[in-house]
Each structure stands twice: as C-alpha cells, then as structure tokens.
Amino acid sequence: MTVDSADSTAAAQQAQPPRKRAAAKKTAAKKATHTKKAAAKKSPKRSPETAPRETPQGQSELVQLLTPEGERVANPEFDAYVDAVTDDELRGLYRDMVMSRRFDAEAVTLQRQGELGLWPSLLGQEAAQVGSGRATRRDDYVFPTYREHGVAWCRGVDPTNLLGMFRGVNNGGWDPGSNNFHLYTIVIGSQTLHATGYAMGAAKDGTDSAVIAYFGDGASSQGDVAESFTFAAVYNAPVVFFCQNNQWAISEPTERQTRVPLYQRAQGYGFPGVRVDGNDVLACLAVTRWALERARRGEGPTLVEAFTYRMGAHTTSDDPTRYRADDERASWEAKDPIERLRAYLASQTDTDEGFFAELDAESEALGKRVREVVRAMPDPGHMAIFENVYADGHALVDEERAQFAAYQASFADEPAGEGV
Amino acid sequence: MTVDSADSTAAAQQAQPPRKRAAAKKTAAKKATHTKKAAAKKSPKRSPETAPRETPQGQSELVQLLTPEGERVANPEFDAYVDAVTDDELRGLYRDMVMSRRFDAEAVTLQRQGELGLWPSLLGQEAAQVGSGRATRRDDYVFPTYREHGVAWCRGVDPTNLLGMFRGVNNGGWDPGSNNFHLYTIVIGSQTLHATGYAMGAAKDGTDSAVIAYFGDGASSQGDVAESFTFAAVYNAPVVFFCQNNQWAISEPTERQTRVPLYQRAQGYGFPGVRVDGNDVLACLAVTRWALERARRGEGPTLVEAFTYRMGAHTTSDDPTRYRADDERASWEAKDPIERLRAYLASQTDTDEGFFAELDAESEALGKRVREVVRAMPDPGHMAIFENVYADGHALVDEERAQFAAYQASFADEPAGEGV
Amino acid sequence: MAVKKLPIAKAINESLRTALENDPKVLVMGEDVGKLGGVFRVTDGLQKDFGEERVIDTPLAESGIVGTAIGLALRGYRPVVEIQFDGFVFPAYDQIVTQLAKMHARALGKVKVPVVIRIPYGGGIGAVEHHSESPEALFAHVAGLKVVSPSNASDAYWMLQQAIQSDDPVIYFEPKRRYWDKSEVDTEAVPGALHRAVVAREGADLTLAAYGPMVKVCMEAAAAAEEEGKSLEVVDLRSISPMDFDTVQRSVEKTRRLVVVHEAPVFLGSGAELAARITERCFYHLEAPVLRVGGYHAPYPPARLEDEYLPGLDRVLDAVDRSLAY
Amino acid sequence: MAVKKLPIAKAINESLRTALENDPKVLVMGEDVGKLGGVFRVTDGLQKDFGEERVIDTPLAESGIVGTAIGLALRGYRPVVEIQFDGFVFPAYDQIVTQLAKMHARALGKVKVPVVIRIPYGGGIGAVEHHSESPEALFAHVAGLKVVSPSNASDAYWMLQQAIQSDDPVIYFEPKRRYWDKSEVDTEAVPGALHRAVVAREGADLTLAAYGPMVKVCMEAAAAAEEEGKSLEVVDLRSISPMDFDTVQRSVEKTRRLVVVHEAPVFLGSGAELAARITERCFYHLEAPVLRVGGYHAPYPPARLEDEYLPGLDRVLDAVDRSLAY
Ligand SMILES: Cc1ncc(C[n+]2csc(CCOP(=O)(O)OP(=O)(O)O)c2C)c(N)n1
Ligand SMILES: Cc1ncc(C[n+]2csc(CCOP(=O)(O)OP(=O)(O)O)c2C)c(N)n1
Ligand SMILES: [Mg+2]
Ligand SMILES: [Mg+2]
To answer: Which UniProt keywords apply (chains C, D) (predicted)?
Structure first.
C-alpha cells in the first residue's frame, strides 16, 4: 500500500550486485516502459522566483513532476524513477503525508495544552519528507534534524516515540537501530558528519546500503556541513545530503545563509547537487531515489535541495509575525503538498471519496492515540539522571548516584515521587 | 623600483571614488594602451595535469602569463592588469622573490644551527606570495598563515620580525597595524574568518580598502574556511581568499582534501574562483589585482587558487622522503618561479648581468643581517609570561606574577637570568 | 528618571541600547538578533533603531560569528555577540580559546580584541537538550578570557556596560531563567568594579557563595535558615574569571564555613577552584571543609528531571547543615 | 618475548598494532597518520601493514574527523582518532562535548560510541604556539567522556588497549615530551584497571599526586627530597575522569599532606578538583592545605620561557617545603 523502495525499485535493485558496479547504466527503473496511464506530460511550470538554470547534471533547475495544480509534467531525467509507481503507491504517499500532518497538528495542540514543552512543526514539508523517506530502503540509514517527523513515519518509527524529548522525559531515547533512524540532533549540522562516517562504514562493509542526512537551509552555513561534504567527496561515501530549504532559519531568510541556490554548493566539492520542488512528493521520491542509487552504485554523495516552505512557526515558542509577512504564507498555501497530490489522485486516478473518508478516520484515530499515549507518558524516575552516562560505568557517577539516593531517602516521610 | 600598487595601479585607483561605484567598468588599467615591448603573446602552455576547463568567469582554467621557459603569453582577461608593469617593476618582482628565497634559506640554515626551533620554508612559492603581495595596496590588510614570508617582505615587514616565534622568544609579536600584516596564525583556517570580519569592518567604514586572506590547500577542508566563504558572500565583504595550493598538507596530497580543483569551491558560495599559475609572478600579480579591484568596487569576495608546489619539507621537522617521490620535486624545479622571470628578464628586457650581481650581493647582505639579528635576539625576561595576558589586568595574573617574582627572588644567590 | 524597575532581559536590552548610542563602534551580532529581537527578545527593537549595519543577523555558524567578530574588533569595532543558547557555543569554542583569548598576548599587546560574548545559560526553563547548560568553567580555565555573570537587573545593566568598555574579551553569562525577575536599575549610578564580588546578605555562621541564577536560591536559603536561627552570609561572586577570592576570604574568616553553589557540574566546576583556593587561604579558619552544591556528573537531564538535578533550596540547606555539623 | 623495553611512542604504536590485529573493527584515523606515520611517528608502519581502509589519512578538519568517527562507531567500528597536537583539538570540541559525550545517554543506552581520541599534549619540547598545551580539564569537566593519561610505556600500551576496548569515549592524553622515555612493557601481563591510580613510590611525609608528564618530575622530586631526609609518596593518577580519589585518600590519610602537580594552569585545573575533594574527605587528617603546582593563568609561553612556566623539580620541592612548614 505504501511506497517503500524495499518493495518497489529496490526490489529490482537488490537483484543487482553491490556497489561499484555498472556505473554506466543508470538504473533498472530507467528502462521501465510502464507509464502513468493518465499522466499528461508537459513542460514544467517553474516557481517565478527562480530563473531556469542548468544544474551540473544538465537538468533544469527545479525538478518538478506534479504542478501545484496536480498536473503531471514530464521530466526526461527523473520520470524513470517513478514510472513504476502504482496508483496504490501514490495513495500510500498521500496517506503518509496526511498522517504526518495529522500527527504534527496533534503535537502542536498537545504543546498548547502543556503536555509538551515545545514542538517543531513540519507543516508544509510533508512532501519533502515523505518523498525522500519513502525513497530509502530498509537497510539504509537516516540521520534527521529535529523536524523529520514525516521521515520517521516512513521509517516505521512509532510517532509517539518522537514526543518524549519534547515532553521532557528523555533526550530522544528510541533505539536508532530498530528502524535505522538516528536520534534527533539539535546542534545544527552535527549529524551530517555522523551520516558521512556511517556511510564510510557502510561502504567499508561492502554493502550497498546508503545513508541520508537531513539538514536545513540555516544549517548549510555550519562548518560541520561543509566538512561533511569534504569527507563524503574525498572518501566517495554513499550518502545523500538532503537539505530541506524551507526558506527560514527561525527568523532569518535564506539570503542570510547564501546568495546562490543551495544545491549549487555541491559542485564546488565535486559532486552533483539538484534542486527539487520540495512540495512535490513525486519529484522528491524520484530525485532521492536517483541520489540513493548513485550512492549504491559507488558514485558517492549527492546534495538534494528540496525547495519548500515552513508554513508554521519555527517551533511553538516562535512568533513569525515579527519577521515575515502573512501573504508569503498564503502564496505557499497554494502550493500545498497534500492538496497537490489530492488533486492528481482525484482527477487522474480512480481514487474514490471512500479512500479520503477512511483516511480521515484513520488520521483521527492516530491523533487520539497520540493524545492518549502522551498523557499517559510517565515521568522518568529521578535516578534516571545517572543512567547511561557511561556504558562501562564511572566511579564519580556511582558516588553521586549513591549520595543522591541517600539524600532522597532523607525525605522518606514525603512521597517518593519516583515515577517509574 | 619594486611593484607596489601604492605606486602603480593603485595610484590610478586612488583617483577613483570609493567602493560601490562603477561596477560596470573593470579598471583603469584595462584601458592602458602601453604593451610590453618585447612580450610575444601566444596561447598559453598548460600544465599537462590539468585539462583546460572553463572557470565561472569564462577564463581558461589556469591563468598563466609567463611560461616556465619565461615566454610571455597573452591572456585577454588579465593582460590589462599588468600591461602597465615596467621593466623596472619586473626587476622589482624578481628582487622580491630572490630576497624572499634568500631570507628563507637563511632561516632554514639557522634552524639547522639550532638558532630557531622550527622553520616553515616558502621555497617554491615565491611567485604566489610576491605576485599577490605586490598587488595589495598600503591600506589593504593581509591575514597570513605561517608561511607568508614573501608576502611579509612585500608588505615591508622586517623579515627578522618573523623569526621571533620560530626562535621561541614570542608568539608573533610584531605590530600588525604598522604594515597591515596580521600575525601568523597557526591554527589552520582560523584567520580566514578574521579577514572576513576585518573586511566587513572596512566596508562599514566606507573605505575602499580590501583584505586578503592566505590559506593552504589543506586548510580548505576546515569548517572555518567554509564559514568565511559564507559570511563573505552574505555580507559581500571586500576580501580575497588566496589559497596557495602547494599540493601538500604535510604528508597529505590535495586529493585528501578535494576531488575537484579548489578554485571551483567558490562558485557554490556565489562568488568567482580562479586558478592561477602560482609559479608565475606576473599572473599572480594580475589575478590578485583583478580580485582586489573587484573587492574595492563593492563586488565582494573572490577565491584565487594559486597552483604551486612546496619544494621543501613542510617544516624543518618534516621528512618528505617518507611520503613523496623525489622526481615530483624535480619536475617542479623546471617550473621554478625565479628562473622563469629571470629567463624573461634576460631575453626580453635590457636587464644586464650587473643587476643580477648586485642582487646577489644584496641578498647575501640580507642573509648576513638576518644571521646577526637572530643570534643577538635576546630571550624574553621571565616576567614576560605574565605580560599582555589581558589588556585591562586580571587579579589572578597579578597574584601569580607576584608569587612568581617572590619565588624567583628566593634564588637570589643564583644569577638572575632575566634576559631583557 | 535614572532609576527603573526592570527585568534582567530588559536591563540587558537597555544596556545594549546605551552602548549602541554612546559608541558608534559597538555592534550587536548573532542569530535572530534583528527583527526577531532574539529568541528571548533581549535585542528587541535594536535593529529597528540602529539599522542592519549595527545590529546584524548572522549566518547560522557560531565559529563564523565569533571569528568575524574578532576581525571586526581588529578593525576597531566592539562587537557584542549573542550565542543563542549555552549548548551552542561549542562550534565557536576554537575561535574563542585559540584566537580570541590569545591574540592580545600573541601580539605582545599590540592589538586588542574587545569582543563580548553574551550567552544565556543555565537550566530551569523546561527546555530540550543543549538549552540548559552551564559551561562557564570551560571558559574560566582559559587565560585571556574574562567570565562574568550577573544575578540581578542592575548588575545585568552595568556589568554589560563594563564588559563592552573593557579592552579584553568578556564572556557574559546571562541567567536565562531569571530574565523576567525584576529589580531596580539606576542607569546613572557609579557601578562597582566589574570583577568584584559583593556581599549580598550579611551573616555570621556560614558563607554561601554563588553567582548568576543561584544567587536567588542562596538568598532564599539564607532567609529560610534565618527562621531556624542560622545566620548565613551570601556572597554574589559576579565574576568567575577573575574570581574575587579576597571578598570570599574576608567573609570566611568571619563565618569559618563556606558552601559554594552553582548549576554546573561539581566535578571541575568553578566551586572546585574556590574551595581549593579558600582552603589554602583560610586553612586555620575553616571549621569545616568547603562544601559544594551543583550539578551532577551527567548530561543536563530532560526537563522533567531538572528540578532534581538543579541545586535548590533543600540541597543548599542540606549542605549548610552538613557544614554546620562539623 | 612478552617483555620489551620500549619508548612510550613505540608502546603506543605496538598497542595500536595489537588492536588492529585483534579486532577488524578498529580503525586509526587522523591527519598524516598514514605514510608519514604521524608527526611523532606513533602510527609508523601501520598503514603499510593494515592498508588505507584501516589506517586513514583524513582531510584537515578536526570536527570532521571526530564527527565521522562517531558515525563509524555507530556503524560498529572502533575508531582511534589522532589529534595532531593538543592545541588543535578545539575545532572538534563541539563534536566531542555535544555529540560524542552525550550520545549514549541521549539514546538511553541504545547506542554506543566507542571512539578513542589520542592527543599528544603538554610542553617541554620547544615548540611553537598551540603545540604544548594541557587541556585535560576542559574534557574532564564534561560528563560522558573518560580522560586518561599514561606516564610510562607499560601504561601507554595497556591503557590504550583498555581505552579501545571500552564502550565509552576515551580521551587519551599522551605525554609527548616523554615519548622517547623507555621502560618495560609486558604485552602479556594482566593490566590493572584503567581508572585506578597507583602508588608509584611509597613515602610517609607527604603525597605528591600527578599524571602523565609530571609523574617523572614528581619521582625526581621524591628522590631529591629523600636526600634531604623527607619521605614523599608519589601517586600516579593515570585517570583524570574518573579520578581515583580513594587511592589518593588512602595515601593522604597516611601522609597527611598533599601536593598536586600538573602542567595545565592551576586555576580550574584538575588539581582544583583533587584539592577540593580530598579536603572534604580528609578534613581532619590534613596538616596543611592541599597545595597545587601547575601552569600559570597565561597562554602557554614561547619556548624560551617554558622552563619557567612548567612545574619543575624546584617548584615541586618548594611546594613540598611550604606544605611541610604548616
Ligand atoms: C549550533 C546551533 N546553533 C543554534 C541553534 C538554535 N537553532 C535551532 S533551529 C535554528 C534554525 C535552523 O534553521 P534551518 O537549518 O533552516 O532548519 P529549520 O529549523 O528551518 O528546519 C537555530 C538557529 C542550534 N540548535 N544549534
Ligand atoms: C587546526 C589545526 N590542525 C592541524 C594543524 C597541524 N598542521 C600544521 S600545518 C598543517 C598542514 C597545512 O597544510 P596547508 O593548509 O596545505 O598549508 P601548507 O602547510 O601546505 O602551506 C597541519 C595539519 C594545525 N596547525 N591546525
Ligand atoms: Mg530552514
Ligand atoms: Mg599545502
């Protein structure tokens, strides 16, 4: 039902021998003759703010497969990566986006109600996250920032796991290994190096797994991100740098970070960069598949800039009215990633109202579950302060733990308050 | 006698109004009709290792005005920046290179004799340093690494000042303000940010002074260098990033830092990058003048990659035989920057043997003076440990200073050993 | 009117405003300091009034912020840099300790780098990871830096004025959980020396020494102890480097007991230095070892645990009791 | 033969070789660690024997080195990272303190990041700026890291083995000026625990505590003091985080006097912690305050002044005398 490349493209991929093979032939999918039955292919409409320009790969600047109105446009370079996508899979992508948005909205509400301390909303970025997230294979590894709730969803992470850190009961705490989805990283840019190192390791292991590192337009300025480009290029690491350019870093517009489109950054490090319409889930799926397959074939890193928009506040603590105009948001609402796919599904596939109604119910159920789980989420016990500081123990931690326990015990007449 | 743009190009330049004017017209020098009398202009010979390629500016990849054999080749883009250079000025450049090399050789010898603890030789990089150094104006500001002895020379810094830190009597210690030549910076890459900030300040002040930041091929990997590119681009700072790609970072070849030519790095940050033959003093002069004039006109930063070769060891502590072949060095000896200008002077100008003989004597005198000054260089007094830690004083430093003095005094029967 | 009752955040805002007005070389730089006025609104309205050339939104790169501030200082400016939260200063740590701290000495005094780095620090605001740390010891150990932290609005105003006027780099730690605590600021007063500690409350039986956010806790502890008949003196250290050992020494020579309180982990925290130093200076006066109350040797915990992690009234009083029991 | 007399540098080299041989997941990474064998030749010959995939010359970017090492550790590798000199670790400081130190706790124990960071540290080699520093306190203050420093070849060999085997990040400080000091290494011995201090010399009158390069100075001081009839005990701390207070306490309960010696600046150096802690533990045993001998609150000076800056025999003995005079 959902597009997971473990089922589709990657199935073909898995038949191929691992990395460093067949650098010439692009991909099995490229040869696929299956075309979308009703997808009228015409030349892409471009966002007016960016003049058409050639990427290093000779693609036109903004890769778009679905217009804001939900019309399918042809793209000779990238069509092949989604030609095999079935209507069911398209509905899967739609569902992913709706569920991600519903989850996100619930978290915003929970924050307002005081159940969470903070929440960074993904509103508007569903296509970038679902398109890229669904392009990954099970054995790929994802290094998110703190906003990739939609990617987490695609990776099969229980969304309630994401709430612990924003409720203040842990600093992440899910097992990164169970879904190959690393912990959220708050220090901007740091995770791009972890991703690069992980990818170097994957290559050393002789697998054809790839790694994807998420980061923002603001993060592009951090030295760590530049260093990750250098390491990835020098070691030809199988990593995709996926930049969600949502045009804002808290209150700063992208012009405070760069004066040229961010995807161009890659070229100076010796690997390709592509800008994709980040509100077009199909384009994001196609471009990320292309980039991941490059990685699998041993062609090294790629930078994908998903051009999108942060429709909400930076986090629930933020007040965007201080720094940006309302009409900016309005213009982006017209490019809503969910509406666009819905328009396509409604006009070009046999998706009936029942599907949408069922999904409504399903997403409401998700909201309810999230609410319940959060409200029931226990506070950690006090002693958790001292847990997992070290893997092999540490004498000072032991000493302080013992002192703390004794100190707590001295209030023995008071309730213990140990939570779990 | 020497080419100092305070005398030549810059004189014309000074007549112009400051920054942010005349962005269209390239430079006064461009209109100069004076051409080298005997400079046969033919198409450039390229180093075989780099295929000709277009830079963002449409220049052919490696800017070269003098071949290794000393023949002048035409370059439509950059000739204008050196057309006004007189034979006397060429002899000045030659002298700068010879004096820099002589000074450097003396320092190496002094290190061997135990007078210096360490010395990073500039051998082979004289043209890159003298060409770029002579392109600067008096009011420009230079941020060197630790190897820019030739630039220091051009800036009028007494070369013996450079020896203090390598003798271990100070950590730099010359007054950066007196020649607008900042202290050597050892932590790789840091100074590129200082240069960028300084340039931002120069622009704020409404001057048309520019700033030049030196760094190496190895340094290009440091996050600080990338961040300086970002800041310089975003604030359109009048700074020239001058990368001496001497192809080695201690034992690591440039391929450990990048897989594409370094000058291309700039494009992804939105400013031009140019590769110049770093062993061609005339080309370095021309390209750096061009870049500095862009800065003065408010056109922002430029990256210049001077492609050169570290002919000696990384420092006197290094043993290059462990990691590179002798024949590599031999092939670069054929491109010696000094020999190349000498060939040109001998064949294309009326420079007579007397000039070379006089220069020999002059450089020997420099060697002698350096030797004498170093040997007479006093050790700092012990109390210098506590000097200049703070500008406004610090109670703990005062306390420790007093304790130290008392402790020293307790050895009153022993000789004071206070040096100065 | 020169005397106003202000919250700390507003006192800092006014102090920045005064500095921008008085000296055209003063710049304010950092992430989101412009239109947004910073995530705590500390720089609110400054860009509007002084323009983008003086109140500068920077790229998201802390090393770049501090590194370019150094360059601007070399050019004659006096940049006041904001680091958005304590946990985000580390990308700039190299520029701070290898460049900012050492450049004046490297140049034998021939250049000055008067950069102020403002860092909202400490916990107690229910934040996520990296937003509640107290890294002051990591700066105070480094020669060439000065490190201060005000505990009230008046000090917030004046210590920032003095930090900006200083020709030395100053790390100015702002007690973020006290940002909205109000007290009187006399903007025409003659302030005390930047690096002097003050006796915030006199007492006879034991000295509590603290700075920044913990001063309030210590004052409350002293008030509570008074009810039990114990007379505690509270020293507000104000400056961590240099640390005013003299004032603490005088106090301890009187009270003969010292408890040091800070949010930072105890192990190698600034209390270790104060304990070692005061023990040396007051060896024959001390009736009890110097005790320390602070964070544990663990990452700052998730918000739901921070009340247990942070030194509070009870833990301070517990240490007071232990000290008095000697 | 399992027992060899080796210089420290060579013992580290052998230890790396053993680790590379025993565990295919061990990697050696850093600037110039390959063909050159590192600027001190500590990794000499390893790339030749284990190949470029295991002994990796990295780009010149310390944050990148540590950051990618973290990623490799997450993938199951055990990277041993070399930082070329003490003063060049700071570009990696953010990755070390915000990522490496905290990731295990952040994941509630579900990931491990067994990265070892080798740092040649300390002065006495006549080097230029940034090549002689002792930044260990800046790491020891940070929870999540372990910090050790061997003083002899046997410890150099074994402590590195143990650091590599540890599932925690370990900062391994190498006393670079002792690299060529030789002593016996038994590569088949059963080593003591990594974080235990050892009594390197027994004595009755006063305890000297030190680690890394200063152990030798303390041993010499003890020998010199013996001639004057003073019996000094020398404790080689070996581990700075955790610090083995128990062993020092036992020693001080016997000798009743403690002098701590390190090259790092005294102010907020690790000696401050040891002084504070031992004073608390041994308050009624101490005949004199714990005295500290270390660097001054100043940037490490130019080479011609380092003999005055570094704690040497005379300064240690001076402190011994001052302590004994109480
Ligand atoms: C090193 C660091 N500096 C500052 C911050 C504070 N901060 C959190 S998010 C953010 C903006 C990030 O912008 P961007 O990278 O575009 O990602 P977005 O939030 O838009 O998804 C900032 C400045 C941080 N988390 N880490
Ligand atoms: C941050 C930092 N890391 C490591 C070093 C040690 N180091 C000194 S010079 C050097 C190589 C520099 O290479 P490059 O930038 O190419 O300059 P070059 O020496 O070739 O002129 C290294 C690694 C340093 N000085 N600073
Ligand atoms: Mg953004
Ligand atoms: Mg080089």
So the answer is: Oxidoreductase, Thiamine pyrophosphate
